């Protein structure tokens, strides 16, 4: 059984593989459009100075997501 | 704990188990149609990229280290303030000499224009209207605005080219989140330093209509290029010429910080009153950092921004100069219309730490903030013309020597410059972007109320405490 956790809990520096999206509506579309479709690999790159938005490497691009949005993406650590 | 959260999320979701989603985007996969489309598009794109793209360099070399520094817990915020302060300092120090040079050249031109009109035998009213009304106002605006604008826009464009601005948005997003909006407002705010009308237009990058409106209505709280010269001139005079450009820089930077705090406060108030609504989201791409290209940056900032803003300022300043010359020259019962208006506003102005002429200058400066200081001087000199204020010392003499300005007058004037209705262009842009007169009116009233309250509080507070 793979370990599954929200993207927001992925430790900094670690890679994860997208399992599914929990979001609904506009946010889901926006996350999908970033390329967060199942099987995509994502790296948590760094946290902001105040800890919250976290930068992720998604398909070569650096994307900042808030805890709320990242928490709706489920990943399994690689 | 984390894991349990994650698993409970999965069980609450009506999608296929993880194993199924690793398979082909099969027909029995209960994903929405859009999900399937996006997955297919990405699969196709991946295949194409794998065939066509070769990566020479692994991600994460120097950019990663710089990025770590720019957004670090310890240095992220200090660096941000340092860079902002440095931008102001370079502008303040660098603009001084070219400004004087430009003023000299332009006022030399005035002499030639006057000679030409005399030679042509123009009537004295035309002479006055064209030379002392239109030309002097335009010359003032160009001499005072062009050098700081050219420097500031270039410095700013360098930071933009480096890719720093999205990092700022990223760093301060939590503050905007507390205010009920999002970090992209930091980008539109930065744009507002150049020009609030451009800042309001830049609000298109914010997806949610509610947050876009908040960003538009609060954009005016960062001083635009039309107001910087006023702030810089007053700060240079009253922060003590003895203390040098450093004290003036600190004063201007302090005012900008006040503006940012009020932006947050006003956003917070708006998102809890008239603009309540769906919670904010924040998804921002951080473009790769890259060394700025100086030539491209210089050309772009000079052509696209500096000349554009300057042209706008001049087209507004020219007719405004003529109008003010008429107001100052038209007498009613022995007093010029300008002086009468100032007299009416004087009690209100005094209560707010200023005087009637200053308030009148702000009101008549509605078309463009650049002309507030010129109008004020015209009013003070009540000759209907601008004197040739070539140096700050001459300006200081007029304000302090002849019209009794104190540091409180300067402070309240700077605060009111920071916090009052935006220029006409910005209001028109708000109207156009929102498609309603309502938001344009609010866009004028909210900052005006903030300015009146702040100036009243500061002036009354300082007087009550006997600080002056």
Care to describe what's here?
The complex is a heterodimer of chains A (78) and B (468). Chain A has helices at 25-33, 67-70, and strands spanning 5-6, 15-21, 41-47, 54-58, 61-65, 73-77. Chain A is built from two helices and six strands, in the order E-E-H-E-E-E-H-E. Chain A has a six-stranded antiparallel beta sheet with strand order 1-6-2-3-4-5. Chain B has one domain (76-464). Chain B is built from 20 helices and three strands. Mean pLDDT of chain B is 82; it is low at 1-30. The A-B interface holds A 2-6, 9, 19-22, 26-27, 29-35, 37-40, 46-53, 55, 57, 60-66, 68-69, 74, 76 and B 2-3, 5-7, 9-10, 12-13, 15, 18, 21-22, 34-35, 38-39, 42, 59, 67-68, 71-74, 76-77, 166, 170-171, 173-175, 177, 183, 207, 279, 281-288.
Oligomer: heterodimer
Structural class of chain A: alpha+beta
Distance between the termini of chain A: 13 Å
Unreliable sequence segments of chain A: none
Number of domains of chain A: 1
The most extensive contact between chains is: A-B, 44 and 45 residues
Compact summary:
Chain A has 78 residues and is α+β, with helices and mostly antiparallel strands. Helix content of chain A is 17%, strand content 40%. In chain B, strands 2-3 form a two-stranded antiparallel sheet.
Labels describing this entry:
heterodimer; A: 78 residues; alpha+beta; SH3 type barrels; 6-stranded antiparallel sheet; 6 strands; 40% strand; globular; B: mainly alpha; two-stranded antiparallel sheet; 20 helices; 73% helix; disordered N terminus; Fe-transptr_FeoA-like (chain A); transition metal ion binding (chain A); FeoA (chain A); Ferrous iron transport protein A (chain A); iron (chain A)
Helices and strands in order:
The complex is a heterodimer of chains A (78) and B (468).
Chain A: E1 5-6, E2 15-21, H1 25-33, E3 41-47, E4 54-58, E5 61-65, H2 67-70, E6 73-77
Antiparallel strand pairs in A: 1-6, 2-3, 2-6, 3-4, 4-5
Chain B: H1 2-11, H2 18-22, H3 33-52, H4 62-70, H5 76-120, H6 124-162, H7 164-178, H8 184-194, H9 196-202, H10 209-218, H11 228-238, H12 245-272, E1 283-286, H13 294-329, E2 331-332, E3 335-336, H14 337-351, H15 356-364, H16 372-381, H17 392-403, H18 407-418, H19 424-434, H20 437-464
Antiparallel strand pairs in B: 2-3
Helix pairs in contact in B: 5-6, 5-12, 6-13, 7-8, 8-9, 9-19, 10-12, 10-20, 11-12, 11-18, 14-15, 15-16, 18-20, 19-20
């Amino acid at each position: 059984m793979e370990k599954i956790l929200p993207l927001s809990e992925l430790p900094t520096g670690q890679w994860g593989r997208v399992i599914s999206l929990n979001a609904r509506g506009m946010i889901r579309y926006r996350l999908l459009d970033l390329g967060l479709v199942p099987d995509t690999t994502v790296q948590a790159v760094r946290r902001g100075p105040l800890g919250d938005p976290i930068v992720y490497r998604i398909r070569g691009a650096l994307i900042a997501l808030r805890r709320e949005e990242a928490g709706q993406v489920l990943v399994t650590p690689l | 704990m984390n894991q349990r959260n994650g698993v409970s999320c999965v069980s609450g979701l009506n999608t296929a188990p993880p194993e199924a989603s690793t398979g082909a985007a099969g027909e029995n996969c209960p994903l929405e149609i859009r999900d399937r489309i996006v997955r297919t598009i990405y699969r196709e794109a991946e295949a194409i990229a794998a065939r066509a793209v070769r990566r020479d360099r692994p991600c994460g070399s120097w950019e990663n280290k710089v990025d770590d520094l720019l957004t670090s817990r310890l240095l992220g915020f200090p660096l941000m303030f340092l860079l902002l302060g440095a931008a102001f300092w370079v502008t303040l120090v660098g603009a001084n000499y070219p400004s004087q040079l430009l003023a000299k050249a332009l006022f030399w031109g005035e002499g030639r224009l006057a000679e030409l009109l005399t030679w042509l035998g123009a009537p004295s009213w035309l002479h006055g209207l064209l030379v002392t009304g239109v030309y002097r106002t335009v010359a003032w605006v160009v001499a005072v605005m062009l050098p700081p604008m050219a420097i500031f826009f270039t410095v700013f464009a360098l930071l933009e080219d480096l890719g720093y601005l999205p990092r700022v948005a990223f760093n301060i997003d939590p503050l905007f989140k507390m205010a009920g909006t999002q970090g992209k407002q930091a980008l539109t705010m930065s744009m507002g330093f150049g020009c609030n009308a451009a800042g309001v237009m830049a609000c298109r990058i914010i997806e949610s209509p509610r947050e876009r409106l908040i960003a538009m209505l609060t954009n005016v709280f960062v001083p635009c290029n039309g107001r910087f010269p006023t702030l810089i001139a007053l700060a240079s005079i009253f922060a003590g010429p003895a203390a040098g450009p450093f004290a003036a820089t600190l004063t201007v930077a302090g005012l900008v910080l006040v503006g940012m705090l009020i932006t947050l406060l006003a956003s917070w108030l708006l998102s809890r009153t008239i603009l309540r609504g769906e919670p904010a989201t924040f998804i921002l791409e951080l473009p790769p950092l890259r060394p700025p290209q100086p030539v491209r940056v210089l050309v772009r900032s000079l052509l696209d921004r500096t000349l554009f803003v300057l042209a706008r300022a001049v087209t507004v300043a020219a007719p405004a100069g003529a109008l003010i010359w008429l107001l100052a020259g038209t007498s009613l019962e022995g007093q010029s219309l300008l002086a009468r208006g100032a007299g009416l506003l004087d009690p209100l102005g005094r209560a707010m730490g200023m005087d009637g002429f200053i308030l009148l200058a702000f009101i008549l400066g509605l078309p463009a903030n650049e002309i507030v200081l010129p109008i004020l001087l015209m009013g003070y000199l009540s000759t209907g013309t601008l004197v040739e204020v070539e140096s700050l010392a001459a300006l200081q003499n007029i304000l302090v020597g002849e019209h009794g300005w104190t540091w409180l007058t300067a402070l309240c004037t700077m605060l009111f410059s920071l916090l009052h209705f935006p220029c006409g262009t910005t209001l028109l842009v708000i109207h156009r972007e929102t498609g309603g007169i309502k938001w344009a009116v609010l866009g004028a009233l909210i900052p005006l109320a903030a300015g009146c309250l702040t100036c009243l509080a500061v002036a009354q507070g300082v007087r009550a405490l006997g600080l002056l």
